[in-house]
Write a structure and sequence with these properties.
Length: about 110
């Protein structure tokens, strides 16, 4: 009589659980940065700010990207919410620069690109 080997039944999720080394709050923060930079226009804006010697006026982004001012403001708000840029007002104009306290991981990402 032929004996058929049977595998032991496995309980879901208890075979070989992976080790998670990234804390959930850190993962959330990095994810926010990556989401903000995932849009091509925002990525170009962030790279332009990285390379700029002085803060950039929002009006210059409007002209450069051929986008409306509200659309550019929306993109900059996403970058600001992710902690990537800071804004200063001069009269009616807003000037943007990379945040001086930019997280090291975000700075490395921006420096690794073009």
């Amino acid at each position: 009589m032929l004996k058929i080997a049977t595998l032991p039944e496995r309980e879901r999720g208890v075979c070989c659980p992976p080790t998670l080394t990234l804390r959930p709050e850190r993962a959330a923060g990095v994810s926010d940065v990556l989401k903000a930079l995932a849009d091509p226009t925002r990525l170009q804006m962030a790279i332009a700010l990285r390379d700029a010697k002085e803060p950039v006026c929002i009006c210059d982004f409007v002209g450069t990207f051929d986008l409306s001012q509200p659309t550019v403001s929306h993109h900059m708000a996403k970058l600001r919410d992710a902690g990537l840029v800071e804004v200063t007002k001069r009269g009616i104009w807003s000037f943007y620069r990379l945040a001086p306290d930019l997280p090291v991981a975000a700075r490395r990402i921006l420096n690794a690109i073009g």
